[in-house]
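Morning. Coffee machine broken again, so started the prediction first thing and wrote up yesterday's gels while waiting. Chain of 133 residues, entered below exactly as on the submission form.
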Amino acid sequence: MAAICSTVLFASPAVAAQGVSPSCSGSIVHQAGLWLPGGNQVGRVELWYSSANGGTNCVITRSFLGSKTDGIGAYLWLQDGRNVFDSSASYNSYAGGAWISNAAGVCVKYKGEVVLNGDVATGGRPGSWGNCG
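Came back before lunch.
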């Protein structure tokens, strides 16, 4: 009797990486000002996209206040359930880039915030999915 042997190889899905780095790569695809309730713009949040690594989305929040802030945050959500953020009360000039790779074709939401004297300036697109590149 001859034994029949078969080997089945399964390719592992691309590992989804995420993290925080001091900058984003690629191009800015969307941005928004961060405004305090009194009407002063205190920063800007940027959504970046790069086709590298299976498509990488990245968010960075920049403060215009320097050392006057009480904290800064950068938040990124993908429609497939992944998310990443960078936020700290000790940040003064920027937060992020908070990034997720292997995200080509996945819609995102993003938000940036700057805190000053208890007031929070927020901006971005935290309520609706977009930039599904």
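Strands lie at 18-20, 27-35, 41-50, 56-63, 71-78, 83-88, 94-100, 108-116, 119-130. Going to sketch it on the whiteboard this afternoon.
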